[in-house]
Model the fold of this input.
Amino acid sequence: MHNIQDYFFKVMTPEQVREKLTETAHHLPSEMIEIRDSLGCVIAEDINSPVDLPGFERSTMDGFAVRAKDTFGASPGAPAYLKLIGEVKMGESASMKISQGDTIRVSTGSMMPEGADAVVMVEYTEFLDDETIEVTRSVAPGDNTVRKDEDLRTGEVMLRKGHVIRPQDIGALAGAGIMAINAIRRPRVAIISSGDEIISPEQTPEIGQIRDINSYSLSALTHQAGGIPIKIGIVKDNYDLLRAEMIKALENADIAIISGGSSVGARDVTIDVIRSLDDAEILVHGVSVKPGKPTILARVGDKHVFGLPGNPVSVMVTFELFVSFLIRLLLGMELPLWEPRYIKAKLSKNVASAPGREDYVCVRLLKSEYGFLAEPVLGKSATISMMVKADGLVKIPLEAEGLETGTCVDVIIFGDM
Ligand code: AMP
Ligand code: MG
Done:
């Protein structure tokens, strides 16, 4: 059996936990993913453009294709006169060719006719008669056109390995005719809620029972972090049952999370279950963070197992601090991208903390004439409604004994940690 002193005198800092993760995580293999499903995926190898885009020289304005030289010096007082010889229709190849003094009508996106090197916008032209156009502004070669390879050049690196696909990237891939890409497989995260008092949210609790919050919040967090949640369900605080579920979960998952029972109480069997698995190594038990001290991290073969505290706030904070971080490592995302996005704000109240512990406080953001105020969300113990009311978290650093009213803080916005 475990001994309380063994563990809690060996708590690690959050930074040390992340070092353990970095040492033990390797990115997952890649697979082909259709671009329509690729939002948020991480590119496994550089993608080169197979084509020139747009592929032909194109007008970027409605107007008249010209030889720029024929417009030199043109002004409202001294217009140039050009002979209209036709029109290039959208989606059609320009068959006509222009010679000195000619012009051809073009639209935004239509092909430039041979011989033309610029477009005069329709706003600077006037029809004198059916075939004579007056031009009141000069254009330089290249004005209001794009070259055939100006958007993308054949062979050019469009997107680099490790890049996270955004909507504009999907658009560019479609533009180049690339319908599927090689992306890192999304980590599969098995989620187990443990506790004798936990019941399914569809059921009506009897006195002493509570509905399972964590399977749901953890699934959503997993999804948001780029993983695929596999909801295993609720398991009693029973060594054999939990062990059997863990073994099954790890067959299909890259990461397994058990929420609840991660501390060292009599009903807390998580640590013993994890230790009993084949090729298991406990990397962490106890982290100097509040909420979230009884966090367990283990390596089981090439997979990772977390035992996270069951408190619904603790489980979310520790997920964001450690599981999200691991998902990013498994996806091979560039590490600087993990850095959370912060909003600067001034604390509206003093917040207390013990030195030697990293504290996370739920805050609401309020707008003031001096910028944002971060107002701590009051609540007796960490409850899910505190998270619901909050816009983000403020970190009180390890060495600080709290922060005073007016201190400028970085608020970590949920979802961007
Ligand atoms: P534990 O980590 O098992 O000591 O649980 C800490 C607290 O979180 C207890 O009050 C539990 O009832 C509660 N809790 C544990 N798991 C869940 C869950 N899945 N949903 C809601 N509350 C939970
Ligand atoms: Mg419990």
Notes: The pocket of magnesium ion (ligand 2) is lined by residues 195, 237, 260-261, 267, 310 (CB under 6 Å). The first strand starts at residue 30 and ends at 34. DSSP finds eight helices and 26 strands in the chain. The mean pLDDT is 93.
